[in-house]
């Protein structure tokens, strides 16, 4: 049930319970295990627009990558509040499969509904904008609509601070201790960001979202990454304060998704809530340095006000080819860059992995540079050049 009273009836799966949250949609066709474990979805009910979900099942958390991180998940648990899909596959077939999607949701006490018109729901959210909603999966008789109306009326997303739920509570280190470190300010990070920090030759020091500048500097980092995460960036006051100090001291810094918005706020710019956000794996972004377009993976509901960048020292790096929203910023004089999309993908295309390589070169040189781009493109596998006519 949506906040306007619209009801979508379907068949429940996963765990029988009632839960309220912000209803959003994702247009991705694959990668539901990575998507459901993305901490940026904290507090949200997710509708998948691709009609068939669950056909390759769920792999084991015990399968690790070369860095010792779970290979097919972006955090240690499901982060969405509930899942809405059109067609649930009750038969799962894949060599890594250990359980079905239904079993996984039940184990993690997450409700799901299938058999609803996800196209109609998505169209409603696109016209109206994201809405609060409530999901009820009952195994004890009919659903009480009156109770659901009260539950959705009292539901809230904006203004909530999800950081204590998604950030690490203690410092964690990944990789070779003999290597130089990059501090990851964890505002809801995905494992793939940690993976790419190590891929570029550093060990990753993951710190809580409210870590101070002095705490970060005690590790003598070569650079700092401000991660993705859920909710309104303006709630992250501690992180914004720390990011402001990072900018002022010319500490090499990379922001990703929520980190992009936090760095903009720290520099004096403003952010706002998008009508229905960008969530999918085929979002076109244009690199304004050379007008080349890339297909990116995205998951965010807030954006940077481009007019507010004036006088901050930041300029637009990437722009969204669909709606001209800000998809990346770079500082004119400081070694600080940020992107609104997910260069680490997972799931999605790897076209923009060069963002991490550019950050490494900025660390090495101590300044903004374009030189890594061509080398990174040659290394990328399957990357295709796209030129946008603007």
Please tell me about this protein's structure.
The structure is a single chain. The model is unreliable at 371-390 (pLDDT under 50). With 390 residues, this protein is an alpha/beta fold. 23% of the residues lie in helices and 29% in strands. It has helices at 32-36, 101-107, 118-128, 145-153, 163-166, 191-199, 213-217, 237-248, 258-266, 354-365, 372-379; strands spanning 11-14, 18-26, 44-48, 52-53, 58-59, 82-85, 87-88, 97-99, 111-114, 131-136, 172-174, 181-186, 203-208, 223-226, 253-256, 271-287, 292-304, 314-320, 326-331, 336-339, 386-387. The strands form 4 sheets. The protein has an 11-stranded mixed beta sheet, with helices on both faces. It has a 6-stranded mixed beta sheet with strand order 1-9-6-3-2-10. It has a two-stranded parallel ribbon with strand order 4-7. The chain folds into 2 domains: 11-153, Glucose Oxidase, domain 1 (3-Layer(bba) Sandwich), CATH 3.50.30; 163-387, Class I glutamine amidotransferase (GATase) domain (Rossmann fold), CATH 3.40.50. It is built from 11 helices and 21 strands.
Short description:
This protein is α/β, with parallel strands linked by helices and 390 residues long.
Question: What order do the helices and strands come in, and which of them pair?
Answer:
Blueprint: E1 11-14, E2 18-26, H1 32-36, E3 44-48, E4 52-53, E5 58-59, E6 82-85, E7 87-88, E8 97-99, H2 101-107, E9 111-114, H3 118-128, E10 131-136, H4 145-153, H5 163-166, E11 172-174, E12 181-186, H6 191-199, E13 203-208, H7 213-217, E14 223-226, H8 237-248, E15 253-256, H9 258-266, E16 271-287, E17 292-304, E18 314-320, E19 326-331, E20 336-339, H10 354-365, H11 372-379, E21 386-387
Parallel strand pairs: 2-3, 3-6, 4-7, 6-9, 12-13, 12-14, 14-15, 15-20
Antiparallel strand pairs: 1-9, 2-10, 5-8, 11-13, 16-17, 16-18, 17-21, 18-19, 19-20
Helix pairs in contact: 8-9, 10-11
